[in-house]
Write a structure and sequence with these properties.
Layout: H1 16-22, H2 29-57, H3 61-101, H4 107-139, H5 141-145
Helix pairs in contact: 1-2, 1-3, 1-4, 2-3, 3-4
């Protein structure tokens, strides 16, 4: 089974929290939290999908549990935790930079620029994060359980 590949048709919902973090300066925190719920729902659905396929192909409980655990850890790190943190920091630093260096920019346009930078960053962070999490998994969990 290839980890890091998104097999579900709604894979873009895994990016919901990055979008939520991008809009943090413009929307209530409840919206950002809801975006994390969507991203976690995707991660759990993808984990379940991979676990079910492993069960159908192999069926051995230990193997299914190990592979499902791998998928859950990978998805949680690569689809939710690290990207959310990364976009949060990109937006926070963008906002701080604009406040300090573009003082004449009013708050609403500053927030719009911050959102745009966050959204524009998403395509650039996905592959490095996926590759980094795969490397981390190869050096830790996958060594420990295989």
């Amino acid at each position: 089974m290839k980890y890091g590949s998104h097999s579900l048709p709604h894979r873009n919902s895994g990016y919901a929290n990055e979008v939520g973090e991008s809009f943090r300066s413009l929307v209530p925190v409840k919206v950002v939290r809801a975006s994390y719920a969507v991203a976690f729902a995707y991660a759990f659905a993808d984990t379940g999908d991979k676990g079910w396929k492993m069960y159908q192909n192999d069926g051995r409980p230990k193997k299914v549990l190990i592979e499902t655990g791998d998928a859950l850890i990978w998805q949680t790190l690569a689809s939710v935790v690290i990207p959310g943190f990364t976009i949060n920091r990109i937006c926070a630093y963008t906002n701080t930079y604009l406040q300090k260096n573009v003082k004449r920019l009013p708050p609403t346009p500053r927030s719009l620029v911050t959102v745009a930078v966050g959204l524009a960053s998403i395509p650039f962070i996905v592959r490095p994060i996926d590759n980094g999490v795969t490397l981390l998994m190869n050096l830790t969990y996958r060594r420990w359980v295989h």
